[in-house]
């Protein structure tokens, strides 16, 4: 190899040295520098994504804490000290449906209710509240439309779960 190198003209040696140096620089760029730059860019986008997720998680945790406080304030399930009839009366009053509640009659472990001229939306919200928070189950529901739009008369049988 030394004989071959010695046999080259000085101009050829310079061209080979500069070409070899350019090749080393290109290889260093492709094999080392470019992956580092791409990795840095990927890490920056990952940090931005994770920061956005952290902000969302903070908001979600605040919502979870707020709902947990509401759950703690919610009345206990029936059978924990109050009767089903009392629970129905109190929750109907809280929902603004007390005036529409014309009859509450005990039946087994639950109660039979009759409501006249009540807002359908308010009634459905109240029944959902009774099922989700109070542990009562709507086992029978008969609705009859009223002359006023959105108003119904209802006959309901509620039972404990």
From TrEMBL:
<dbReference type="GO" id="GO:0015628">
    <property type="term" value="P:protein secretion by the type II secretion system"/>
</dbReference>
<comment type="function">
    <text>Inner membrane component of the type II secretion system required for the energy-dependent secretion of extracellular factors such as proteases and toxins from the periplasm.</text>
</comment>
<keyword id="KW-0812">Transmembrane</keyword>
<dbReference type="InterPro" id="IPR023229">
    <property type="entry name" value="T2SS_M_periplasmic_sf"/>
</dbReference>
<keyword id="KW-0653">Protein transport</keyword>
<keyword id="KW-0472">Membrane</keyword>
<dbReference type="InterPro" id="IPR007690">
    <property type="entry name" value="T2SS_GspM"/>
</dbReference>
<keyword id="KW-1003">Cell membrane</keyword>
<protein>
    <recommendedName>
        <fullName>Type II secretion system protein M</fullName>
    </recommendedName>
</protein>
<dbReference type="GO" id="GO:0015627">
    <property type="term" value="C:type II protein secretion system complex"/>
</dbReference>
<keyword id="KW-1133">Transmembrane helix</keyword>
<dbReference type="GO" id="GO:0005886">
    <property type="term" value="C:plasma membrane"/>
</dbReference>
<keyword id="KW-0813">Transport</keyword>
<keyword id="KW-0997">Cell inner membrane</keyword>
<comment type="similarity">
    <text>Belongs to the GSP M family.</text>
</comment>
<dbReference type="Pfam" id="PF04612">
    <property type="entry name" value="T2SSM"/>
</dbReference>
């Amino acid at each position: 190899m030394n004989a071959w190198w010695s046999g080259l003209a000085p101009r050829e040696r310079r061209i080979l040295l500069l070409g070899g140096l350019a090749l080393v620089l290109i290889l260093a760029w492709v094999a080392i520098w470019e992956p580092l730059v791409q990795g840095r860019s990927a890490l920056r986008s990952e940090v931005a994504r994770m920061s956005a997720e952290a902000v969302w998680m903070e908001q979600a945790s605040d919502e979870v804490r707020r709902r947990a406080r509401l759950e703690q304030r919610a009345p206990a399930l029936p059978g924990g000290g109050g009767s089903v009839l009392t629970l129905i009366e109190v929750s109907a009053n809280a929902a603004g449906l007390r005036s529409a509640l014309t009859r509450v009659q005990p039946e087994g472990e639950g109660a039979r209710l009759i409501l006249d001229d009540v807002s359908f939306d308010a009634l459905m919200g109240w029944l959902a509240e009774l099922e989700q928070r109070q542990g009562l189950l709507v086992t029978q529901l008969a609705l009859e439309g009223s002359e006023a739009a959105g108003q119904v008369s209802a006959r309901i049988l509620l039972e404990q779960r």
